[in-house]
Write a sequence for this structure.
């Protein structure tokens, strides 16, 4: 006697679903393309007709961009913020949309089954019962559940951070962070910097991959274990995780860029002074705005 | 040098939420590296312990670097 259904098999490696010439297209790559198309359409609609007083989609896109811009400038300041913004915003928006696809019905659960017996018939995963029900190869799987993508993004993040470091501080000062022969302690600190810098590639990629992969596995498994009911709890949780993980990736990239473009010689005292100065300037600006407002 | 603005709630949230892996990954990487090195050189557990120690120091140092802005504020 066959079981009603079996729990879906969780595989870490993405499955190849078709080939374009010699290029294998995996279900995660397909999801990456879907994310790119969604973003292209969204931003095309948002910037198609630029009105002075934005409404609808333009309003949404402007709000999103201004929010990220505000965050970047609050971390890195106005000058550096403008340089960091394109990469940080791209990371945030792309990862957010790639993660959000996780909660769509059919993602991870609709596909074909892999056994030779069933290959002749295309089968929808969610209609699958019996002994083959755990052999689904999903057609769409969230892009960030593929370690290749998260590793690639982590490499981009770390390499660009280094490039900004070299560009802003000069190669001598930047290299002296890692290879410092002034004394044994400086040398050891340089070694630690080198280790943490390298470990960041792994921590960036595994943090995003682990969180989203675990989330998608939970959603897929609970869709079978406790259909309809469990996902009332897990889908909002996954929406939260999707946002938080995109946010963490973007903010950490930003903070590391800020650290990499700040020299060794900055002392906490001078930073405190700069902080005070900044606050005073902000207060002056606000006063001016209030004055201008009261005049008009 | 551009002036450093004050820490915002969002930056603190992003930094603190990501701190776990920043500490864990160097520890895991160096400990596993030490374990494999021990296997190659038959010096068990010298490199394992050295890796663990260096990993712990790197993890804490990485976290300190990341959190230095939070500490200052």
């Amino acid at each position: 006697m066959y079981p009603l259904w079996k729990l879906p098999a969780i595989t870490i490696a993405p499955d190849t679903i078709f080939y374009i010439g010699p290029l294998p297209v995996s279900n995660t790559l397909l999801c990456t393309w879907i994310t790119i198309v969604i973003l292209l359409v969204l931003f095309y609609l948002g910037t198609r007709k630029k009105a002075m007083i934005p409404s609808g989609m333009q309003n949404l896109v402007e709000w999103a961009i201004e929010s990220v811009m505000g965050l970047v400038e609050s971390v890195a300041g106005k000058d550096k913020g403008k340089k960091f913004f394109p990469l940080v915003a791209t990371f945030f928006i792309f990862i957010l949309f790639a993660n959000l696809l996780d909660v769509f019905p059919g993602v991870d659960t609709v596909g074909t089954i892999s056994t030779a017996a069933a290959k002749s018939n295309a089968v929808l995963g969610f209609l699958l019962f019996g002994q083959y029900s755990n052999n689904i190869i999903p057609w769409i799987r969230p892009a960030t559940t593929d370690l290749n993508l998260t590793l690639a993004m982590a490499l981009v993040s770390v390499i660009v951070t280094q490039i900004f470091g070299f560009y802003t501080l000069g190669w001598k000062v930047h290299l002296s962070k890692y290879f410092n022969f002034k004394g044994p302690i400086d040398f050891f600190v340089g070694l630690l910097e080198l280790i943490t810098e390298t470990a960041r590639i792994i921590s960036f990629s595994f943090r995003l991959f682990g969180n989203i992969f675990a989330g998608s596995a939970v959603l897929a498994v609970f869709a079978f274990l406790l259909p309809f009911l469990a996902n009332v709890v897990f889908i909002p949780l996954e929406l939260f995780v999707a946002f938080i993980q995109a946010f963490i990736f973007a903010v950490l990239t930003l903070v590391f860029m800020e650290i990499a473009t700040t020299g060794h010689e900055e002392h906490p005292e001078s930073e405190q002074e700069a902080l005070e100065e900044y606050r005073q300037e902000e207060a002056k600006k606000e006063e001016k705005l209030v004055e201008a407002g009261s005049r008009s | 040098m551009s002036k450093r603005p004050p820490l915002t709630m969002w930056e603190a949230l992003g930094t603190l939420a990501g701190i776990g892996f920043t500490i864990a990954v160097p520890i895991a990487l160096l400990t596993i590296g030490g374990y494999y090195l021990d296997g190659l050189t038959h010096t068990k557990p010298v490199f394992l312990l050295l890796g663990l120690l260096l990993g712990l120091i790197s993890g804490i140092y990485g976290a300190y670097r990341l959190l230095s802005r939070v500490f200052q504020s």
Q: What stands out?
A: Chain B touches chain A through 30 residues (CB under 8 Å).
